[in-house]
Amino acid sequence: MLFLSRNGQAPVKLKKGTPTGFEQYQIHGMKKFYYEQEHHTTFSQCMDVPGCRIWWHAIKVRSEKTAISATATQTGLRLNFTLGLLDADAALNKRELVKLKSAGIDLFYVYRGGHDAELPAGTHIFFHLDISKDLFVLMQQNPAFSSLSRAVKHTVKKGNGHINSRPVPINLYCATLIEDIRQHTYEGFAAKVYLNTKVWSLLQYFARHFAGTPAPSGTNRLTPQDVLDIDTLKAHLKQHMSQPFSLEKLCAALNLRHPQLQAQRFKQLHDISLHAFYRRFRMEEAFNRVTRSGFKISFISEKLGYKSAAAFSRAFRQHFGYSPAALREATRGTS
């Protein structure tokens, strides 16, 4: 998607690279281009991964309110994350009025062409995923997306484009997934596999909240001490990831009472269970070691606390879609 001014001027010329003052928004491995006009500067980045095109836009608006036209490069589903602190008004497909709320996620069915928007002065950050038809077919085959799939079909049949009437909130877990994409340093095939896994996790997160999955029990407001205890749990898990997961032993080692309550508080803050966090962190470390070290798969498996190399390979394949050996071979083949 390209953001161009809606002021009747001739189309602007896109420049490759990063404009001055936008260096903090750069993402490794993405194509970068920008353009500048009197009232705003737009810096865009994109990358293709299997089934999806990832976009990141940073727009600095200098006037009180600037009208722009966002040009979609293809027709299809777009999952938009409004990351800045400012709201924006948009006319989806030129006619459907939409409020883009700060820290909100919206799913749109967009048609190729112009989509108008008005942005107030300040910095606007939009991150979005252009979902391919093939990826949407896979989503439809997964029961976790059944409610969302029905909503997409119903909305498109009516001729509308905004799938969710209320934005799904960007919580800590969702923000962490986006930050993983922003901060990754992988190259080539490894980057595509890593980013594809993050994209799928974001889609699952949106589908779960769109379907209205009930909040975990024990949703009283967390105290500062609760958050400190959760941070302590996370730090201990990261330092002892080779040890089998045990909630009771974990809390006992840290002198934390009521293990089940600690687990509920963790999920309330992070949107995933403590055990799921433990598994994901081990997979992050496993991916790094498989793609960047020369250690044998059996050695990596042992150091990460798996009972066998076979168990490690099954867990790795389930998470990333490739066995450790297959990913290492493919990565070396593209390096």
Please characterize this protein's 3D structure.
It is a single chain. The protein has 335 residues and is α+β, with helices and mostly antiparallel strands. The mean pLDDT is 90. Strands 1, 2, 3, 4, 5, 6, 7, 8, 9, 10 and 11 form an 11-stranded antiparallel beta sheet that branches. The chain has 11 helices and 11 strands. α3 (172-183) runs antiparallel to α4 (188-210), α5 crosses α7 and α6 crosses α7 (259-270). The two termini are 30 Å apart. The protein has 2 domains: 2-171, Jelly Rolls, CATH 2.60.120; 214-334, Homeodomain-like (Arc Repressor Mutant, subunit A, Orthogonal Bundle), CATH 1.10.10. The radius of gyration is 22 Å and the shape is globular. A hairpin with a 2-residue loop joins β4 and β5.
Number of domains: 2
The span between the termini is 30 Å
Query: For the record, what is the CATH homologous superfamily label of the largest domain?
Result: Jelly Rolls
CATH fold-type name of the largest domain: Jelly Rolls
Biggest sheet statistics = 11 strands, antiparallel
State the name of the first-level CATH class of the largest domain.
Mainly Beta
Shape: globular
Order of helices and strands: EEEEEEEEEEHHEHHHHHHHHH
Q: Count up the helices.
A: 11
Alpha-carbon Rg, integer: 22 Å
Q: Pick out the low-confidence regions.
A: none
CATH architecture of the largest domain: Sandwich
Number of DSSP-assigned strands = 11
| Alpha-beta classification | alpha+beta
Quaternary structure type = single chain
GO molecular function, one term: DNA-binding transcription factor activity
Protein name: AraC-like DNA-binding protein
Pfam family, one: HTH_18
Keywords: DNA-binding, Transcription, Transcription regulation
